[in-house]
C-alpha cells in the first residue's frame, strides 16, 4: 500500500502530489494525460493505469480536477465505486455547495469517508505559504489526512460535518476579494480621470487596504457581539463618498456604473435608518426580504 493517491495532475493537482512526494510519502498518481506524471517519477511515484487502480493502491485519494462534473465522469464507474469502500476520498476540485453535498452522498453510498475541500490560494503557495485550506465532511477522514494537508498549509481547518461548508466559506472569502478588486479598479479610473498615475495609487493602497481590512474584521466581530450602532466611519459617510465619486466621474466622462452601485448599496441601508451605524449593519440589506 502506498501512502496516498492523487487523481488529476493539472497545475494544482501536480503541486499537491509533488509536495507529498517531496516530503517522502509514497504516492500513486493517475492523470488523463499520463505524461504530466513524468516530472514526478523519481522512483517513488507509481503511475496507475486507471482511477480505480489509483484508489485501490492507497488508504486515501486526493482528487483535484477541473470541476465536479469531471470528478463524476472519472469516479462514477462501478470499478471506482467498489474500490472506494472504506477508503478516504478528498475532493479538492472547486465546486458549489450543492455539488459538495451531492458528492458526499455519492461517496457515502460507495462506503467511503469523504472530505470536501477548498484551496483558497494559488498553485505556487502550496507547501510554501500560509493560506486557508478549508475541509468539511467526515471527521475521521480529516483526522487521518490532517498531517498531509498541514504540509500544504498550517492554516488547514476542519469546519464540521456539513460537506457544503468549505465551499460556502471559500465563496464568502472570495466575495471580499471581488469587492476589493472592483473598488480598487474604480479608484484606478478616478486616478486616470485626474491624470494621476496608477503608480501613485499603488503607494497608498497597501496601507489603506490593511487598515480597512482590520476595520472590517472589527465590524464582523461586532456582528456577533453587538456595538454596530455607532462608528467613526458610518454608512452615511460611504454614501457621501460614492456621491462625490459620481460627481467627478460625470465631470470627466468616466463610467459611473460602479460608483452608482456603491451609492445604491449603501444608500439602501441608510434609507432603512442605518446611516449612523457601522458598515457591519450592511448585512441587514442582504438578509431575506430586504430588497
Ligand atoms: P488545470 O491545470 O486546468 O487541470 C485540470 C485537471 O483536470 C487536469 O488534471 C486535467 O487532465 C483534468 N481534466 C479536465 N477535464 C478532464 C476530463 N474530461 N477527463 C479527465 N481529466 C480531466 O486546473 P488546476 O489549476 O489544476 O485546477 C484544478 C482544480 O483546483 C479546479 O477545480 C480549480 O478551481 C482548483 N483550484 C485551482 C487553483 C489554481 O491556482 N490553479 C487555485 C484554487 C483552486 P489533463 O491533464 O489530462 O488535461
Could you characterize what this model shows?
This protein has 291 residues and is of the alpha/beta class. The chain has helices at 11-22, 51-56, 68-75, 78-83, 97-109, 139-152, 165-193, 198-225, 235-252, 257-274, and strands at 4-7, 27-30, 45-47, 60-63, 88-91, 113-119, 133-137, 156-158. Strands 3-2-1-4-5-6-7-8 form an eight-stranded mixed β-sheet, with helices on both faces. The radius of gyration is 24 Å and the shape is elongated. 36% of the residues are buried. The model has no long low-confidence stretch (mean pLDDT 94). Bound molecules: NADP nicotinamide-adenine-dinucleotide phosphate (NAP). NADP nicotinamide-adenine-dinucleotide phosphate is lined by residues 8-13, 31-33, 36, 64-67, 70, 73-74, 93-94, 119, 122-123.
Q: What is the secondary structure topology, with strand pairs?
A:
Layout lengths: L3 E4 L3 H12 L4 E4 L14 E3 L3 H6 L3 E4 L4 H8 L2 H6 L4 E4 L5 H13 L3 E7 L13 E5 L1 H14 L3 E3 L6 H29 L4 H28 L9 H18 L4 H18 L17
Parallel strand pairs: 1-2, 1-4, 2-3, 4-5, 5-6, 7-8
Antiparallel strand pairs: 6-7
> Number of DSSP helices?
10
Task: Find the structural class using helix and strand composition.
Answer: alpha/beta
Shape field? elongated
| Through-space gap between termini | 56 Å
Keywords:
binds NADP nicotinamide-adenine-dinucleotide phosphate, 291 residues, 8 strands
Give a brief rundown of this model:
The chain is α/β, with parallel strands linked by helices.
